[in-house]
């Protein structure tokens, strides 16, 4: 298939690489020209993505947020107007369900299929082609997107025949993920205050009932003092904001989510927005006057 991937961050780049391994012809697009050049050296097409749009069977969007998604599809350099009729737009961005439904409708008006397909699993699984994808859309959209789904995911959850259901499930996942990261940060710094070394925390808790996937994935970043971003702090004010907006629409109280959001917002205010989201531990450490482990060699 001829496939375009717009958004070559840690997740999008891994998906593009997985599509190349599966034998597809892949065009990459990103404001970071170095990421596009890197994909080209690894087998991606050297033709400009916009110029190739009419040849594409699918366009995969892995940008940061709803505004960027709308700009890609319907902005000044509208990709929607360049794609051939019947091309499937696969939106892997975490967005509000209402936004996903609106994009599906606007794409349909231009003869395009749309799959609401937010992703989970992190940069490592993206690079391995082993993501979990929470998808919803028409049978035609699923059929057109199937080769992309097969190459990038180990689990595809088919959640409905219209956009919105996939994004609703992603909001549930992000609620848990964000709360779990904040809880990990609170627990590991609380441990320090009680004389529990971070290394001991990481040895013990993953073998006890208090563990979680997020704890086991993010706590090593704190222990190693390495906040190279795999998933950045800046993602969480946006994602948890979507959760809380959706909750307010139905009169649902989500106090744990609201508290977690406050901590990520505080981390962003501290200038940590581009660091790995495990850096939210620095908020707790600063408040308590604690010292976190430094990166080895520094």
Layout of strands and helices, then pairs:
Elements: E1 2-6, H1 10-21, E2 25-29, H2 33-41, H3 49-52, E3 58-61, H4 66-74, E4 88-91, H5 97-108, E5 113-116, E6 119-120, H6 122-128, E7 131-135, H7 139-152, E8 153-158, H8 165-193, H9 198-204, H10 213-224, H11 235-249, H12 255-269, H13 281-288
Helix pairs in contact: 1-6, 8-10, 8-11, 8-12, 8-13, 11-12
How does this structure look, described?
With 298 residues, this protein is an alpha/beta fold. It has 2 domains: 2-163, NAD(P)-binding Rossmann-like Domain (Rossmann fold, 3-Layer(aba) Sandwich), CATH 3.40.50; 167-288, N-(1-d-carboxylethyl)-l-norvaline Dehydrogenase, domain 2 (Orthogonal Bundle), CATH 1.10.1040. Helices cover 51% and strands 12% of the residues. It has a 5-stranded parallel sheet with strand order 2-1-3-4-5, with helices on both faces. A 3-stranded mixed sheet has the order 6-7-8. The protein is globular.
Short description:
The protein has about 300 residues and is of the alpha/beta class. It has 13 helices and eight strands. About 45% of the residues are buried.
Features:
298 residues; alpha/beta; Rossmann fold; N-(1-d-carboxylethyl)-l-norvaline Dehydrogenase, domain 2; 5-stranded parallel beta sheet; 3-stranded mixed beta sheet; 8 strands
